[in-house]
Amino acid sequence: MVRFLWRRLQQAVVTLWGVVTLVFFLQRLAGDPTFLLVPETATQADIDALRHALGFDRPLLAQYLSFLGQLVRMDLGVSVVQNIPVVDILASRLPYTLELAAGALAVAVGLGVPAGVVLAMRRQSWWARWIGALVFAAQSMPTFWSGILLILVFAVTLGWLPPSSVGGPAHLVLPSIALGLLSMATFARMTRTSLLDESTKDYARSARARGAAPMRILWRHLARNASIPVITVAAIEIANLLAGAVIVETVFAWPGLGQVTVQAILARDFMVVQGVVLLGAFVTVVLNLLADLLYSAVDPRIRLDGSSA
């Protein structure tokens, strides 16, 4: 266990360093943000003074090494636009994104896993065909389009739910559905595929030969083994939900990390973008580590050293 965690920690550090390095240099290729921070009447002397104050006149390597030193001290720098620490910006917006991601995950798992079970166990029934059609539609529909459609139907036409912004639980319904639909389709397909694969194995055929009821076979034999691929998908989809929140938060005016990321990119606020990307990479690494740990808890045959019992 200790050796596994140490190896994964080393991999996480290398991954995070690679992500931060890539984003740092790619953003500098977009241009000098100093021109966006000065009024149109600013002179060249004013521009040069601001560029010196922000440190953008230093060699690129010096800026990079300085940024790495700040990361070691857990300092993400100061926003060049808002002039406040990036950590404070992330801390103020992160709860909204986590709330939205939790709602979307509830939609994805709460609808996707049961749909996958129905598609696998009752695949010849008429309602399985309807569920399959709905899953296909959810998978094919872009997030921004589903969000606009939900607002048009349930907020504008029917007036059942608020169209945007934050507030009570009702404000969370539409953006959670819009963000969770695509992941719901992924959970449904993976659950179906995994159950169908497990149902063809010897232990499942033996249970059916003994006369075990289909639901008993499902919950007693298939569910646990079939959950391994679903756990893998869950780790990926949670990270995708955080990334996909950029579009949904823009459509629903949700004040989370997605909205602040768009604003920072448009303003070339390098420090904020780097902070958001680093946070996203960290979350992805942690989720994959938790998925590996869950593998061993669900199936004792899977060892953390990568071998099978």
Can you walk me through this structure?
This protein has 309 residues and is mainly alpha-helical. It has a domain at 95-254: MetI-like (MetI-like fold, Orthogonal Bundle), CATH 1.10.3720. 76% of the residues lie in helices and 0% in strands. The protein has helices spanning 2-28, 34-37, 44-54, 60-72, 86-121, 126-140, 143-157, 170-199, 202-209, 214-251, 257-266, 270-298. Helix 6 (126-140) crosses helix 8 (170-199), helix 7 (143-157) packs across helix 8 and helix 10 packs antiparallel against helix 12. The longest helix has 38 residues, at 214-251.
Distance between the termini: 15 Å
Give the helix level as a range of percent. over 70%
The main pleated sheet reads as: none
Strand content: under 5%
- N-to-C series of helices and strands: HHHHHHHHHHHH
CATH architecture of the domain at 95-254: Orthogonal Bundle
Total number of beta strands:
0
Average the pLDDT over all residues and give the rounded result: 80
What's the CATH C level of the domain at 95-254? Mainly Alpha
Rough outline: flat
Helical stretch tally: 12
